[in-house]
Design goal:
The strands form two sheets. This protein has a seven-stranded mixed beta sheet with strand order 4-3-2-5-6-12-11, sandwiched between helices. Strands 1-10-9-8-7 form a five-stranded mixed beta sheet. The chain contains seven helices and twelve strands. Helix 2 packs across helix 3 and helix 5 packs across helix 7. The chain has two domains: 188 residues, Rossmann fold (3-Layer(aba) Sandwich); 62 residues, Single Sheet (N-terminal domain of TfIIb), CATH 2.20.25. It is globular. The chain has 260 residues and is of the alpha/beta class.
């Protein structure tokens, strides 16, 4: 059976939570909450971009101190996020939306996106556009928080990401991973099989290729300097310590100084 190529996070949506089973969303949510509380005096309205199936938004919503909105390019992921919010009885709203084209009438105190979402922006001009568009959706004094994966992270993670597989009962997936150090492009390729619930036989096969650029800290800092933001902090990993060029994952905290 020939695999059908699909847009990223379309066929992957039903297996995404299995794929991310090892991610500690509660601790990640605590880290984002700590950053927000450290750098904003009265945060209320929070927007997550590229929220996936909503696990992090839901974790923050459970704190009951924020109005949480989550968006993702994939309607399939948003549908799952809405179902999870209903299941856990948390107040969070989810909408399908491209994070390069945010279209809310209201503005937010904080916008965040994590887990390498901006690494999908492989051109520096795209990353600058992202900064400009998010700035328009923040109140003066609001925060943009985003993390990115560096070349070191790709080089260290490619072996354990490669030849990874999982099974939900209805779907199973197989991931291969490789890193082109010259181009600084990390490839994750997924073959997803849909199984007949009665026979267990494969009835559909899908293929998704994910390409992300690994940015150095200096590259991102240079782009931030061209943006309307003020740099507040750059954190190493999941600690409030200053990131360096040797950091594997960097979390940036930027402030909106003036309205657009």
């Amino acid at each position: 059976m020939k695999a059908r190529h699909k847009e990223i996070y379309t066929s992957l949506a039903p297996v995404y939570d299995t794929l991310m089973a090892d991610v500690d969303y509660e601790s990640w949510g605590d880290f984002i909450d700590e950053i927000i509380q450290t750098h904003h005096h009265n945060p209320i309205d929070i927007l997550e971009l590229a929220c996936g199936t909503g696990s992090l938004s839901i974790s923050l919503a459970e704190l009951e101190c924020y109005n949480i909105t989550g968006t993702d390019l994939s309607p399939d992921m948003i549908e799952i996020a809405r179902d999870k919010a209903s299941k856990f009885e948390v107040e969070a709203e989810f909408f399908p939306m491209n994070y390069l084209d945010i279209s809310f009438e209201n503005k937010f105190d904080c916008i965040f996106t994590v887990f390498d979402s901006v690494n999908y922006l492989r051109e520096e001009s795209e990353l600058l556009t992202f900064l400009q568009r998010t700035h328009r959706s923040l109140r003066t004094g609001g925060l943009l928080i985003f993390d990115f994966s560096t070349p070191r992270n790709s080089m260290e993670s490619v072996d354990y990401l490669n030849e990874n597989e999982g099974d939900t009962g209805q779907f199973r997936f197989y991931r291969t991973s490789r890193y082109d150090a010259k181009q600084k492009i990390h490839y994750n390729e997924f073959e997803i099989e849909e199984l007949d619930p009665k026979t267990g036989k494969v009835i559909n096969t899908f293929f998704e290729q994910h390409k992300q650029r690994a940015y150095s800290l200096s590259e991102v800092l240079s782009i931030v300097e061209q943006s309307p933001y003020h740099l507040v902090a750059k954190y190493d990993g999941f600690d409030l310590i200053d990131a360096t060029e040797n950091s594997a994952r960097v979390t940036m905290v930027l402030r909106c100084q003036t309205p657009q």
